[in-house]
Design goal:
Blueprint: E1 3-7, H1 12-23, E2 27-32, H2 40-51, E3 60-64, H3 70-82, E4 89-92, H4 99-104, H5 106-126, E5 131-137, H6 160-178, E6 184-190, E7 192-194, H7 213-222, E8 228-231, E9 243-244, E10 246-248, H8 249-265, E11 269-275, E12 281-282, H9 283-294, E13 300-303, E14 312-313, H10 318-324, H11 332-345
Helix pairs in contact: 1-2, 1-8, 3-5, 5-6, 7-11, 9-11
Bound molecules: uridine-5'-diphosphate-4-deoxy-4-fluoro-alpha-D-galactose.
Uridine-5'-diphosphate-4-deoxy-4-fluoro-alpha-D-galactose (UFG) is lined by residues 97, 99, 137-139, 191-192, 211-213, 216, 229-231, 242, 244, 283, 306, 309, 313.
């Protein structure tokens, strides 16, 4: 298995996964509309390949287009087939991912995330491409789930973004059931990916004002006039702030590589797998670690709780670690150092 198509390959997790695959001698077909990402990412991926003194950049091919355009995606599969070297598998990241925005404009989320996924899998089916890694999210779990959360926990997303992720998982279940002798599918449920590539060449590049904690910590560290708002100081946790499972984005990328290898070497299956470290960190602990390792000040103030937040969301990662024989290896310190280096070197993003 060598030729892998990555949708949303210029995004945060997508770009790191492209690097991991290229470094492991895959040929990567990077597909992106660049609506929420920048084409500059491509040059950065190529620069990382150069840094490694490798010629691996030649294995990257870029296709600009929208998955809602079925002809666009079908052309890529058809041309690969004609070349005698078909696409062997797909990692599907493309999709909208902002929780707040999904509440404000749910139909856009359904339209973008579901239509594009339906087009993709129907074209995969037509071209007998049967290996798919889908970018799901821990947001599929219900607030009722107590941490550490296992994959068989109750599923009950609390926002339209999460509903689209769970719906795509259900579509994939049905597709698998239709012909379980064909499909090799994994739905990876990410917890909280942060950090950046150690080169500082690629990292998280939110369009507009970020909503997630880590980019906001970076912004507060950059600008002494910006105070981070911590949502609630009265949660029933060690220090009153919410607990999450932060994982280095390069570990998440390697998780995709391991999943691809697993699916390729085993019989047909549909897997649902947590991608997290299994370690909980509070908001205050993350700020403390970030400030300490980077020797910066992060000003903050406490505000009221954010609607829809949960006290604690931490993965039980025993399934992924035993099945893939893989555990995330980078520490919270690494995440803070790499994430800050990326931000410092790319203050205005791409
Ligand atoms: N937080 C603050 N202040 C902020 C932003 C966040 O205190 O300005 C806190 C939140 O209350 C939460 C923690 O920081 O306790 C993390 O919040 P994020 O918004 O960074 O992340 P979430 O855990 O809420 O959600 C993330 C992704 C979702 C994904 C989910 C999976 O944004 O897309 O993890 O668990 F679905």
């Amino acid at each position: 298995m060598k030729r892998i198509l990555i949708t949303g390959g210029a995004g945060f997790i997508g770009s790191h996964t492209c690097v991991s695959l290229l470094e492991n001698d895959y040929e990567v077909y990077l597909v992106d509309s660049f609506v929420n990402s920048s084409p500059i990412v491509i040059n950065r991926i190529l620069s990382i390949c150069d840094l490694n003194n490798s010629n691996l950049g030649k294995n990257l091919k870029v296709f600009k287009g929208d998955l809602k355009d079925k002809v666009f995606i079908e052309d890529i599969f058809s041309n690969a087939d004609k070349s005698g070297n078909p696409i062997n598998g797909v990692i599907h990241f493309a999709g909208l991912k902002a929780v707040n925005e999904s509440v404000l404009n749910p139909l856009r989320y359904w339209q973008e995330n579901i239509f594009s996924s339906l087009n993709l899998v129907s074209v995969m089916k037509k071209y007998n491409c049967n290996l798919l890694v889908f970018s799901s999210s821990a947001t599929v779990y219900g607030k009722e789930s107590s941490s550490p959360i296992k994959e068989n926990s109750y599923l009950n997303p609390s926002n339209p973004y999460g509903n689209t992720k769970l719906t795509i998982e259900k579509i994939l279940n049905d597709l698998y059931d239709e012909n379980s002798n064909i499909w090799k599918i994994a739905c990876l449920r990410y917890f909280n990916p942060i950090g950046a590539h150690t080169s500082s060449l690629i990292g998280e590049n939110p369009v507009g004002m970020p909503n997630n904690l880590f980019p906001l910590i970076c912004n507060a560290a950059l600008d002494n006039n910006t105070k981070l708002k911590i949502f609630g100081s009265d949660w029933d946790t060690i220090d009153g702030t919410c607990i999450r499972d932060y994982i280095h984005v390069s570990d998440v990328a390697e998780g995709h590589l391991k999943t691809l290898e697993y699916l390729n070497n085993h019989k047909t299956n549909i897997l649902k797998m947590n991608i997290g470290t299994g370690l909980g960190t509070s908001v205050l602990e993350l700020i403390e670690t970030f400030s300490r390792v980077n020797k910066v000040t992060v000003d903050y103030k406490f505000t009221s709780r954010r609607d829809g937040d949960s006290k604690e969301i931490v993965a039980d990662n025993s399934f992924s670690s035993s099945l893939l024989n893989w555990i995330p290896k980078r520490s919270l310190e690494d995440m803070c150092i790499d994430g800050w280096n990326w931000k410092k070197n790319n203050v205005n993003g791409f």
